[in-house]
Hints:
It is a multi-pass membrane protein. The structure is a single chain. This protein has helices at residues 149-153, 199-202, 342-351, 486-492, 510-538, 543-559, 564-581, 591-619, 623-648, 653-672, 675-692, 701-707, 712-717, 729-737; strands at residues 2-12, 25-31, 34-38, 49-58, 65-71, 79-86, 97-102, 115-124, 209-219, 232-238, 241-244, 255-264, 271-278, 286-294, 303-309, 316-325, 330-333, 365-375, 388-394, 397-400, 411-420, 426-433, 441-449, 457-464, 471-484. It is an alpha+beta fold. Strands 17-21-18-25-24 form a five-stranded antiparallel sheet, with helices on one face. The longest helix has 29 residues, at 510-538. The two termini are 50 Å apart.
Amino acid sequence: MYQLDITLRRGxxxxxxxxxxxxxxxxxxxxxxxxxxxxxxxxKNLNPVWEExxxxxxxxxxxxxxxxxxxxxxGLQDDFMGSAFLDLTQLELNRPTDVTVTLKxxxxxxxxxxxxxxxVVLTPxxxxxREVTMLMRKSWKRSSKELSENEVVGSYFSVKSFFWRTCGxxxxxxxxxxxxxxxxxxxxxxxxxxxxxxxxHRKPHLWRGIVSITLIEGRDLxxxxxxxLxxxxxxxRLGHQKYKxxxxxxxxxxxxxxxxxxxxxxxxxxxxxxxxxDRDAGKRDDFIGRCQIDLSALSREQTHKLELQLExxxxxxxxxxxxxxxxxxxxxxxxxxxxxxxxxxxxILKRYSPLRIFHNLKDVGFLQVKVIRAEGLMAxxxxxxxxxxxxxxxxxxxxxxxxxxxxLNPEWNKVFTFNIKDIHSVLEVTVYDEDRDRSAxxxxxxxxxxxxxxxxxxKAYVLKNKQLTGPTKGVIYLEIDVIFNAVKASLRxxxxxxxxxxxxxxxxxxxxxxxxxxxxxxxxxxxxxxxYYINSCFDWDSPARSLAxxxxxxxxxxxxxxxxxxxxxxxLLTWNYFLIISGKDNRQxxxxxxxxxxxxxxxxxxxxxDSEKKGFINKIYAIQEVCISVQNILDEVASFGERIKxxxxxxxxxxxxxxxxxxxxxxVILYFIPLRYIVLVWGINKFTKKLRSPYAIDNNExxxxxxxxxxxxxxxxxQELKPDPSHSPCKRKKNNLG
Length: 738
């Protein structure tokens, strides 16, 4: 075994691949067909300087080092800029060597594509086998349809044999999203341990700030369709983070008014790549133009209005960009606990006290998650063991534990802290098995709404399958604390939810389509049954009921006032509340949805097996997009009805109490203030909103409120399963001894 230290110095006279006569070059190293290194991207430079170090382990010297250079094109396929081979057998051992390689294109060997300058040192390694395999995301060139959930937690590019060593110097910096630490990896030999990263190397994987971006509008964009218009949307990318705007149909001056946040990992900032596209149903989308934002040139804690000219196209994009300091996010050992320190706990409680209502409205609360251990996990390796690690997610905030090797009952003992921006968020904890030869294997998952958490209680959560519909093998022990300001949380309920950047793309599913249709049918049938009931009163099918309805109709119409509408809704909420607290809860468990979700998961498993055979055929039919749209519309309509029902059913008490407060306020306002004054104030506010705040994001407070209420499907997914005592390893040991 040999250790190969490479310093990628610079490139000279590289090939121009962009229209502006420049390129955005980066370098890949491959050994034995496996990618072992990828450099950072140097933008708009034909003589780039990298000065990056890689430390690799090589089994033998027969395989040469394959060097490939590409021009990065966001949203498009990267352009090939040349390649070269470095024969490792020609290197002298233990001697630093400066190497200059000439880049060539195998198809055009006469073309001069420039040179790459390297410094290499080859050192023999004997008897040392400590290794750390880093899992990174697949290349962003692959579409999200090709990414499985495991690959989402996996990596930018599949690195099957990538070793990270300190080599007596500083550790080689991993690019992109990776796990913030790898430590305490125990192999069968107790003396062999994985590399333990120091805090210095761990900190860069926790974000240093937040980049808040508001996409306002586009101006004079390029017409791409035959009607002289376009259906534009915009893609943003900062490192591994991506965001796609909504599509604005048939316009060259779109008004998006969308706001989202990126995490800022680098102290100096970074570059946001922006591309504009025209949506074309049934064929490849048309490229409109690109631009970039250099965050290092922007001052912090200040909102910048940017009007960016689109390169390689026409038009401008108008954005608001704000750089702020990092929120409360950290990883520590169990011995370092913020809430157990009296001073820190008092500081946190003070930060979210009722007296600080209007101080930083986005900072709603504080979440601390202790990931203690897991028991009875699924064996994912052929040895009957697993190499489990945990992914802890809150919206777009994602942190990971270290890997515990060869263990079905791992102990992590880690404490994660998050800043809460929406109290209606759901904490997701997923357990994966690390596999150095491919993406991580899924072992189990739990989803815990923040409002359902009982502070300071260590609980055993049964791990669920990917669809969160049924149990899988194993339990995970968590202790969670939530501290939040109720007034801030209530105000944040009335603004749009944060959109998740990494979501599984919708695909056509016959079972999902049927499920959404039945859900919508159930909602519509409530209205149909109500109409039948009213009609039966008109037909005097039951004389007593019709007489009572007639008297009630005369009384209500004669005495009707507008304030009675919210009053009736308020009485309905109150009636259901007293039914629940008196033990007469008439809410039934939705077994129909549960059964359908389980059937859907079985169909997904079958689809995964047949995807290679049928995937390409399905994609070529344009009708699939129409079916997916119908499927999603059915889901939205059904979810809307279910959310209204669950509001009145007290599924989420916090939201039901909030509805009671709002209805009380509406009732009082309608009782004391004439309707014409209310309509006048509403109209003045609507007409002057753009004048008072030109870049305000449009929203509907009622729809934003309902978006926080879970649908029936989400209620099933968030249900906590009771652990089976017989599955506990401790119980099994006792039984075996008996």
